[in-house]
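Lab notebook, design round three. We kept the backbone fixed and only want residue identities now. Task for the bench partner: fill in a sequence for the structure below.
Input structure tokens:
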């Protein structure tokens, strides 16, 4: 007759009871993880508390986590203080446009670097990687002058144009590595069957790296949604402002309207959370694949 133990599951490893030393180390690990998680949760709780208080109360006691009085009207006043829906629609338009353009162009450029042999391929790829070492601020002046000469200041063109070239060298590098990991026998057998190069890329190769392509698109959307620096430089008209730039209107010379700013900041996280949970499967697959890159 088999006997069962009442040992707690988290104390069992490989069907053997953990020793006291291992239990202590595991408890210390869990406590450490909880403390680290609190470092990330605390700012969110503080933002929520500040969004439900008055500006005067926040300035008097900014670190209070439980409001004296819950002022839910702050979320109503937010929509009358700024054109919140307009800013959200602008950010969504830019986010989805940048995400789709980045995913498609990085997949095409990465395929060219991985599977085609053309003169100067390695030199171009090396130059592409070298751009990763340059901070964006270094080339910002030359980019601004270029778009100014093209009469594209105060438009979305400067914000979308980089996505039409893969978004960043890191995206191209990731896609190239995954393409190189796909067995070449797949494309060779397709060529024997008479498949065109376009069909091989669209029907075979792209499907093999689709989790990474979707992950790159999600990252591109998040970066565009949270971007404050580039819209601040290129956008001048309020009706074109993104949400990140529009919330800056609560900061003025006489002070900052902290309660409305925090309310807007919390609401701005809703679309990003929705995108994450909607594509969580592909996002996690892309992360798992990126941890095992093949050279």
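Proposed sequence:
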């Amino acid at each position: 007759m088999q006997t069962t133990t009442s040992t707690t599951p988290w104390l069992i490893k490989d069907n053997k009871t953990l020793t006291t030393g291992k239990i202590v180390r595991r408890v210390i690990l869990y406590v450490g993880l909880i403390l680290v998680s609190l470092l990330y949760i605390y700012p969110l709780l503080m933002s929520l508390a500040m969004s439900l208080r008055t500006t005067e109360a926040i300035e008097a006691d900014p670190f209070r986590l439980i409001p004296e009085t819950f002022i839910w009207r702050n979320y109503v006043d937010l929509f009358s203080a700024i054109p919140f829906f307009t800013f959200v629609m602008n950010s969504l338009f830019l986010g989805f446009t940048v995400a789709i353009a980045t995913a498609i162009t990085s997949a095409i450029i990465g395929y060219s670097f991985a599977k085609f042999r053309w003169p100067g391929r390695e030199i171009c790829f090396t130059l592409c990687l070298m751009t990763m070492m340059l901070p964006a601020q270094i080339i910002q002046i030359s980019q601004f002058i270029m778009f100014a000469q093209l009469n594209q200041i105060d438009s979305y063109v400067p914000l979308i144009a980089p996505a039409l070239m893969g978004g960043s060298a890191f995206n191209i590098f990731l896609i190239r590595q995954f393409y190189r990991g796909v067995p070449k026998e797949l494309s060779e057998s397709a060529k024997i069957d008479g498949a065109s190069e376009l069909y091989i890329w669209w029907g075979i190769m792209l499907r093999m790296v689709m989790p990474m392509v979707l992950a790159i698109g999600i990252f591109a959307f998040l970066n565009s949604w949270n971007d404050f620096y580039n819209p601040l430089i290129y956008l001048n008209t309020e009706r074109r402002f993104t949400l990140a730039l529009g919330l800056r209107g609560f900061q003025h010379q006489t002070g900052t309207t902290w309660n409305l700013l925090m309310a807007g900041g919390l609401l701005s996280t809703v679309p990003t959370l929705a995108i994450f949970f909607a594509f969580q499967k592909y996002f996690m697959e892309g992360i798992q694949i990126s941890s095992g890159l093949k050279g």
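Keep this in mind before ordering anything: Residues 22-71 form one domain.
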